[in-house]
What we know:
Layout: E1 3-5, E2 12-14, E3 18-19, H1 35-47, E4 52-54, H2 59-62, H3 64-77, E5 83-88, H4 93-107, E6 112-120, H5 123-128, H6 135-144, E7 148-155, H7 159-167, E8 173-177, H8 187-196, E9 199-203, H9 210-213, H10 229-238, E10 245-247, H11 253-270, H12 275-290, H13 317-329, H14 332-343, H15 358-362, H16 369-379
Parallel strand pairs: 3-4, 4-5, 5-6, 6-7, 7-8, 8-9, 9-10
Antiparallel strand pairs: 1-2
Amino acid sequence: MWYKPYGSTGKQVSAIGFGGMRFQKIDESKPEYDYDACAALLLEAQAQGVNYFDTAPFYCDDQSEAIFGHAMKDLQKAGTPLYVSTKSSEKEGPKLRAQLEKSLKRLNLQKITFFHIWCVLDMADYRSRLGPNGAYEAAKKAQAEGLIDHVVFSTHCNGAEIETIVNEGLFEGITLGYNILNFRFRQQGLAAAAKKGLGVVTMNPLGGGVIPQRGEKLAFLKTPEDATVVDAALRFNLAHEAISVVLPGLGTLDEVSQDCAVGNRMGVQAKAPGSPAVFSAFVESRKNALEHRTAAALDTLCTGCQYCLPCPQDIAIPKFMLSYNEKIFGESKDTLGMLKGHWGIKADLAATCIECGECEERCTQHLPIIRRLDEISHWAGAK
């Protein structure tokens, strides 16, 4: 595995990290997981060199942290560096502290390596975490007590907003969405973090699963060196000198093997003389080649994060939005086909939306969910 510095912390982290958001259920219709099988994924990733493991409250029906904790004793037996990341979106200090303590207990850990002020949506949201008795103050106090190694943040802000936050110098690292499809909309923030010396973790490097699912239509992303579009997307992020960890969600042993293999190959290449310049040239050439091939609309693909839930009407919003991705790539009938054939959902349920706006307030990508549901309901003939 290729190991890269996490900013100025002195820690060497695996270039491929384990994203703990995609564990698979025993039965898709029920919130039940085989903890032993899920733990086996974590252990296999570690065996292949992964040492950066990311989770959060509420991932996988609020069971991801518990799954990590189930595997923790075995993970610690390896005797190699083990860096665990989790998060809190609480704005009030006491609530963040309570969530941190719950996370420590569920993870079976005494300390969190990288603790995120989670899901900063815009500058107003960012400022709301900094006040007296607020989230940031509580996180720094916990750090002083030895419960946190590094206070970092995750964000879906635009590039200019990220630059402002980074330049205020409060954090040691950042997790942000950045991939081969949306790079134009995130470059300013990535460059600012690199200049400031922050560790950088990129989430959704595969577009929340969109890239592997649409491999045929996105075949133009590949170079002759890429066997698959997944390889192409991972190499694009890995080659950035500024990026410490590329964080795909890993839900199967095949995904662990495929993604770690890319990290291993890049690690071998990184040992060659002049590799930083070679990688930098590769990134720039890919950006230039893709500049006019990736439409602005692709920045509005749903990644299936499920932060939009719950819906007061019990609309399966993520499934509707993931199906709407088909419209972005093709035709409205493709969205209707995905809803019926893949999810088994009646498209006319979109018409039950009461336009309360709760989902849009929570959406990390600021997607026009209400408008899209309205479009789907019209395509289905429900309006």
